[in-house]
Amino acid sequence: MLTIASDVDALARFGRALADPIRCRILLALRAAPAHPADLAESLGVSRTRLSNHLACLRDCGLVVAVPVGRRVRYELADHRLGHALDDLRSAVLAVQTDAHCPDAADKDCC
């Protein structure tokens, strides 16, 4: 049985990952299919260095894994349920309020 602290930690890690639009786009791309970093960088329109930093964050959060494929590395979601969670979360947020706009992250009273 999970403790409340571990539940909160897991949700906080997921929240930190989703707090950045590039990381959201990476997770959504990997939900569709595993990908190599060069392909992800090109499809998302970000530099490889920037993508690498975001992939490291997602790995540290335990949300993606690097799978060696020959001399290259392919990234994929750490668990297929994360893809379902992303779909469910997106659907729930859109169902609740479609015209909401989150205040600037710099607003200390928000989130």
Automatic annotation (TrEMBL):
Coiled-coil positions: none
GO biological process, one term: response to cadmium ion
Domain of life, source organism: Bacteria
Example GO molecular function: DNA-binding transcription factor activity
Domain HTH arsR-type: 4-100
Protein name: Metalloregulator ArsR/SmtB family transcription factor
